[in-house]
UniProtKB/TrEMBL annotation:
SMART domains for this protein: Ami_2
Domain named N-acetylmuramoyl-L-alanine amidase: residues: 60-226
Protein name, UniProt field: N-acetylmuramoyl-L-alanine amidase
EC number: 3.5.1.28
Organism: Sutcliffiella tianshenii
Catalytic activity annotation: Hydrolyzes the link between N-acetylmuramoyl residues and L-amino acid residues in certain cell-wall glycopeptides
Keyword annotations: Cell wall biogenesis/degradation, Hydrolase, Signal
């Protein structure tokens, strides 16, 4: 096995980050709780927290989430992509979705490059997006942030330095510069989605204590949403 193949094989679990995020999606970040009909896709109609904005249902299988066991108090932002496997077309929706399935990770929502909002997991279930980490303001959430947060993935790619642990330089250099960072359409969609989520969850305050990046919760492991994410464009 040559060096590049070894790098690709050994880093795919990390790549599914965000959760990725980081397909940046990372492999299973906690034990999967088995339920009946694990192979079935979740029916979002049973979720009491129905989005009040236009979303496209792209529900993940039940094995990619579990019943939530804590109050929803936070939103966590991530980026995700398929740059490692397909740097020329890192945002192919089918391929990114397949990565979530393959590594049994998830988020509640994903925002496309043109501002499309995809609904992946009902909010009344815990998605596998945060993994291990700690929030200094909520230390009792240690390694259990999934139970208390809504995860939002944005189809995006960080800087070369941020991506190097998971995407070798020779692959990163094949990425179109227009595919790096975030789009204005994504910021607008994220702003609307956050406004909608906060209306339905008054326990989430609109401040940087309750709306956080994955890199703040797990700084040793994660870099998303990264230095290219402009918090001011969503009101911070």
């Amino acid at each position: 096995m040559n060096r590049l193949c070894w790098i690709i094989c050994s880093t795919m679990a990390v790549l599914l980050a965000g959760c990725t995020s980081d397909t940046v999606i990372e492999g299973p970040v906690e034990p999967i709780v088995e339920e009946k009909s694990d192979d079935e896709v979740i029916d979002s109609k049973n979720d009491p927290f129905t989005p009040g904005i236009k979303v496209t249902d792209l529900m993940l299988p039940k094995q990619n989430s579990r019943v939530r066991s804590g109050a929803i108090t936070h939103v966590m932002l991530h980026f995700t992509n398929n740059a490692l496997r397909n740097p020329e077309n890192p945002y192919d929706l089918d391929e990114v979705y397949a990565l979530f399935e393959e590594y049994q990770v998830s988020a509640h929502y994903m925002i496309g490059r043109d501002g499309e909002v995809f609904h992946l997991v009902p909010e009344n279930r815990a998605a596998y997006h945060a993994g291990k980490g700690i929030d200094l303001n909520y230390q009792h959430y240690h390694n259990s942030f999934n139970d208390h947060s809504i995860g939002i993935e944005l189809l995006a790619i960080g800087t070369k330095e941020e991506m190097l642990p998971i995407v070798p330089e020779e692959i990163f250099d094949r990425i179109n510069p227009n595919d790096i960072g975030y789009t204005d359409a994504q910021y607008k969609a994220l702003d609307k989605l956050l406004e909608d989520i906060l209306k339905r969850h008054p326990t989430i305050k609109k401040d940087r204590e309750h709306i956080v990046g994955h890199d703040e919760y797990a700084p040793v492991r994660k870099v998303d949403p990264g230095s290219l994410f402009d918090w001011s464009k969503i009101g911070f």
